[in-house]
């Protein structure tokens, strides 16, 4: 006998239980009628989307979920539906998955391993389940697990003990660099521990800072990957399993298509595009406006914006001032032309002069400093926010992770905006991503990539006048922020200049207040500047420890 399992690698809108429920019903009907599937498996917390955060605390949650489940029980026939939802049992809320067939809830499992690290906060909401749940589907014993469960040996061993012959794992597993390989190694290990095949179903879509890249996959009882759904593409992807009592492994998944792994640049670029597209569309913005300086960050941000929502929904604004070079003006115009976006030039000189004149009495006796530089950045921020308000376009913030780490950005200036695609991307990776994007089609002028970055806030300024070279800076930042090394541990890794290391770490520490006010943006590492990293702003910790 053969059983066909449809992996519903879909997107759900967090909080829209009505729409998500309809999506479950439609996908189940499609899987039954078009794919001839026997079973359809959805990602974790299908009905609420993931993470629902404090929506889980709303008093109306329980009623909404009950109605949604009743609707699925009522309206889907002829296919086993494995769906995720939050459910309150005896006063406690659980992260559940249930198997529904012909109007009956055949079994329900509550997640046992609740992630409470990095971006995850599940212990704030859920109680831990304790028991395995095995459901018989056409003579095969399916064991249910949910996402983090599979990262630990316990739940799957318990399912095996309870008689499972195949494991279904429902996931909301967000992207970060190297995650694709980690999941594969993990499933290899888990499957071989219990000698059972595992069907791993993930979301495809983005939710605020999180991006789910799909790549749902199946491993056999030896832990070998036998099929893998595409990355960054939603859809129903089927796997057949042969059920043969005479074989040592009764349930054997049949080999299918395996989507090739993506390299770092390709996966990060696609994550940025998906993160931005879903943020703009799910929040119903008409489009995007951004300040185009002729520099590399805004050039890459523009390319991502166009790839995300199309050139006709993107406006670029060049706002030259005295220090803006003609090269920057030429490059910005060329970028806009290459990508086919609406391009405006709005000189800020008259606005900055008006501010300076008005402030002159207040500033009498003071010498020039960063105040004047910040005034330029803030004027540009005012202009962009005015265009945003008038036209319903969201301002795309362009600062990268290296700058956000050391506070190299102006509050209410170039930090304005609603969303950022670079906030978790170090500057050294920005260069590589530009080259990657140009390999798909030339959109970023070569000179923008090869010339030294400059904020152009003062005459002949280049970033590396005030910061160490980006190669050095990013290495130190990676070790401090992403690997949690102390200053002395960083100095022990190689020959860094001691003062530079201490200066960089100090800048990171004292600029927490800026990051706390920064817009959200795509997370591409396991330690982004969003929910991954929660440092107190006011603190007396010793720098660099
Ligand atoms: N702990 C704290 N909690 C809350 N607020 C705090 C604070 N400490 C300072 N502040 C406030 O923040 C202000 C200082 O921040 P802010 O006004 O932003 O200014 P600030 O950090 O002094 O200057 C901006 C820096 O970013 C560089 N920049 C600007 C623009 C673009 C680029 C680029 O290349 O991309 C680089 C620029 O060269 C300069 O070094 C203080 O005047 C104070 O009002
Ligand atoms: N002349 C300008 N016209 C339009 N926007 C500008 C201009 N200068 C700066 N900006 C905006 O402010 C952001 C910060 O720019 P800045 O040049 O200070 O730093 P950067 O980190 O080198 O960024 P970029 O590489 O994009 O220039 C830019 O990405 C851009 O969005
Ligand atoms: N939703 C979850 O349980 C996710 C946790 C898991 N470690 C992952 O990132 O894949």
TrEMBL record:
GO terms for biological process: NAD+ biosynthetic process. One of its GO terms (cellular component) is cytoplasm. L-glutamine binds at residues 173, 179. Keywords: ATP-binding, Ligase, NAD, Nucleotide-binding. Residues 3-243 form the CN hydrolase domain. The active site is at residues 44, 111, 147. It comes from the Bacteria. Pathway: Cofactor biosynthesis; NAD(+) biosynthesis; NAD(+) from deamido-NAD(+) (L-Gln route): step 1/1. InterPro entries: C-N_Hydrolase, C-N_Hydrolase_sf, Gln-dep_NAD_synthase, NAD/GMP_synthase, NAD_synthase, Rossmann-like_a/b/a_fold. Deamido-NAD(+) binds at residues 374, 403, 514. ATP binds at residues 291-298, 398. It catalyses: deamido-NAD(+) + L-glutamine + ATP + H2O = L-glutamate + AMP + diphosphate + NAD(+) + H(+). GO terms for molecular function: ATP binding; glutaminase activity; NAD+ synthase (glutamine-hydrolyzing) activity; NAD+ synthase activity. Its EC number is 6.3.5.1. The keyword Ligase applies. HAMAP family: NadE_glutamine_dep. Belongs to the NAD synthetase family. NCBIfam families: nadE, PRK13981.1. Catalyzes the ATP-dependent amidation of deamido-NAD to form NAD. Uses L-glutamine as a nitrogen source. This is Glutamine-dependent NAD(+) synthetase. The lineage of its organism: Bacteria, Pseudomonadati, Pseudomonadota, Gammaproteobacteria, Oceanospirillales. The gene is nadE.
């Amino acid at each position: 006998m053969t059983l066909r399992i449809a992996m519903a690698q879909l997107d759900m809108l967090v909080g829209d239980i009505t729409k998500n429920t309809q999506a479950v019903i439609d996908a189940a009907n499609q899987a039954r009628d078009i794919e001839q599937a026997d079973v359809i498996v959805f990602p974790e917390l299908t009905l609420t989307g993931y993470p629902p955060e404090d929506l889980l605390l709303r008093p109306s949650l329980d009623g909404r979920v009950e109605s949604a489940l009743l609707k699925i029980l009522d309206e889907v026939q002829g296919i086993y539906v494995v769906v995720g939802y939050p459910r309150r049992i005896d006063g406690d809320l659980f992260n559940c998955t249930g198997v529904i067939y012909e109007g009956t809830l055949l079994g329900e499992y509550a997640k046992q391993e609740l992630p409470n690290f990095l971006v995850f906060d599940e212990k704030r909401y859920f109680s831990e389940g304790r028991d395995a749940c095995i459901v018989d589907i056409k003579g095969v014993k399916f064991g249910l697990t949910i996402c983090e469960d599979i990262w630990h040996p316990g739940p799957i061993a318990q399912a095996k003990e309870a008689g499972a012959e195949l494991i279904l794992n429902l996931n909301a597993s967000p992207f970060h660099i190297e995650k694709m390989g980690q999941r594969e190694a993990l499933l290899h290990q888990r499957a071989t521990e219990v000698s059972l095949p595992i069907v791993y179903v993930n979301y495809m879509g983005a939710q605020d800072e999180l991006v789910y890249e799909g790549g749902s996959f199946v491993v056999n009882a030896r832990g070998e990957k036998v099929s893998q759904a595409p990355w960054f593409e939603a859809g129903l992807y089927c796997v057949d399993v042969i059920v043969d009592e005479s074989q040592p492994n009764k349930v054997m998944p049949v080999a299918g298509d395996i989507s090739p792994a993506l390299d770092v640049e390709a996966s990060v670029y696609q994550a940025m595009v998906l993160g931005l597209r879903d943020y703009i569309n799910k929040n119903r913005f008409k489009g995007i406006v951004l300040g185009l300086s002729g520099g590399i960050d805004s050039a890459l941000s523009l390319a991502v914006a166009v790839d995300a929502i199309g050139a006709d929904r993107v406006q670029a604004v060049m706002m030259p001032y005295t220090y803006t070079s003609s090269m920057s003006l030429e490059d910005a115009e060329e970028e806009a032309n290459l990508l086919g976006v609406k391009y405006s030039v709005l000189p800020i000189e008259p606005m900055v002069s008006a501010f300076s004149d008005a402030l002159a009495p207040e500033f009498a006796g003071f010498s020039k400093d960063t105040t004047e530089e910040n005034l330029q950045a803030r004027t540009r921020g005012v202009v962009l926010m005015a265009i945003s308000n008038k036209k319903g376009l969201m301002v795309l913030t362009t600062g990268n992770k290296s700058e956000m780490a050391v506070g190299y950005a102006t509050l209410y200036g170039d930090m304005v905006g609603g969303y950022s695609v670079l906030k978790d991307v170090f500057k050294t990776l920005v260069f590589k991503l530009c080259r990657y994007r140009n390999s798909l089609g030339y959109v970023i002028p070569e000179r923008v990539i090869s010339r030294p970055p400059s904020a152009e806030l003062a005459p002949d300024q280049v970033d590396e006048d005030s910061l160490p070279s980006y190669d050095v800076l990013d290495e130190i930042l990676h070790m401090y922020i992403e690997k949690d090394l102390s200053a002395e541990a960083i100095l022990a890794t190689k020959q860094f200049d001691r003062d530079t290391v201490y200066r960089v770490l100090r800048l990171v520490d004292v600029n927490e207040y800026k990051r706390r006010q920064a817009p959200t943006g795509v997370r591409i590492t396991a330690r982004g500047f969003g929910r991954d990293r929660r440092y107190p702003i006011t603190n007396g910790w010793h720098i660099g420890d």
